[in-house]
Write a structure and sequence with these properties.
Elements: E1 3-10, H1 20-37, E2 42-46, E3 52-59, H2 62-69, H3 73-82, E4 87-94, H4 107-114, E5 119-127, H5 132-149, E6 156-159, E7 169-176, H6 179-185, H7 189-194, E8 201-211
Helix pairs in contact: 1-3
Length: 214
Amino acid sequence: MPITELALLRLPSNNSIDSATIRSKLTHAKTVMQTYTGRSFYFLQQVEDPSLLYIIGEWDSLVQHMEDFIPGKENQAVLESLKDDVTVEWLLHIAVPHAGLPLPKDDSSKSKALSGKVVWSIVRHFIRDGEKDKFQNTFDDNKKYLQDFVTEGQIGAGWRVDRDEEKEEWILFCPWTGVEQHSEFARTDGFEKYGRIREYIAGAEIKHAKLLDL
C-alpha cells in the first residue's frame, strides 16, 4: 500500500509565498517529485502561520522516499536551489494512501479549494503509551459523529510509520468550509461523543491549511 508524506516547511521572515521566484522553485520541486513517483503532490499554506507550508505527497514505500529519492541527484539539486528559501521543520510518513484522504483529485475539487471554499484541518494525535488499540477502537466507534458534521467530503487518517522512540501518532485530515465550521463542531453533542478519544492521547496539534496554486 502506498504511504503519504507530510512535511512542514518554513519560509524565512524575508520571504513570502507571493514571491515569483519562490513559487517557481516550489513548482519545480513538485514537478520533480510527481515525475519521479507518477503520483500527485500538494502544497498547502497553514492558516495559523502563513510562513508555514505543507507538502502532502505519496510514495510506494518509505524506502522509495528516504533511501532512493532523497539521496538522488535530482532531489539534491532541488534542495540546493531552495537552501536559502525554506527550512524543513519536520517530515513524517503515514500509513494511508491518497485515495483514503480528502484531497482534491479532479479539476472541479481543485478549483473549489483554490477559491478558498475548502480548508483542511491537520491534527496530530500523540497517543498515551500502551493505549493505541483503545484509541483506535474509540475513534472507529465515534468517528461517525465527525463525519456526519463534515460537509466537504470524507475524513481520512492513518498511523505514522516512521517514528523512532516517539509516541504512537495518529494523523487526521478533515475538509471544512472554513476554520469556523471546525470550531462549530466542538459545540455539538456529537463532539462530546467523538471527544472520548481524548482519554487515550497525551496531546494533540491542531492546524488548518489551504491549497496553494503551484
